[in-house]
Design brief:
Elements: H1 3-10, E1 14-17, H2 21-32, E2 37-40, H3 44-53, E3 70-73, H4 76-82, E4 85-88, H5 95-98, H6 104-107
Parallel strand pairs: 1-2, 1-4, 2-3
């Protein structure tokens, strides 16, 4: 059995972190292939737009998103707690800022995720 088929049979909880073109493309691919996704982004205006028009207003805006399989939210802790698989789709330069509100213990709930904050 193919690895991705095993994952699909197990119905993993997938979360995508980020609101850019890479995150949008990943969410589109996952939902089109039957996966349920929680999608975190910080921009509340983009979240409202996506929930209304099923499109990301700023990135890959021609893609129609399947919101029956995707929930777009701004609560990062809830998104991380939801996930078996956490996909971080944000530029490396912004990782510290994106996760600054999270206690590192919350990040440990997703297997395979390692995060070390670069304190200045």
């Amino acid at each position: 059995m193919l690895r991705n088929q095993r994952l699909k049979n197990q119905n993993p909880k997938i979360a995508v972190i980020g609101g850019g073109s890479w995150a949008t493309a990943i969410v589109k691919i996952l939902t089109d292939n039957g996966y349920r996704v929680k999608w975190w982004m910080r921009n509340s205006e983009s979240i409202k737009y996506i929930n209304t028009y099923h499109r990301n207003p700023r990135y890959l805006s021609s893609l129609q998103l399947n919101l029956k399989r995707c929930k777009v939210i701004s609560n990062l802790k809830r998104t991380i707690r939801f996930s078996d698989i956490l996909i971080v789709a944000i530029p490396a330069a912004f990782i510290d800022d994106a996760f600054s509100t999270c206690n590192p213990k919350v990040l440990e709930t997703s297997s395979g995720f390692c995060y070390k904050r670069n304190d200045k």
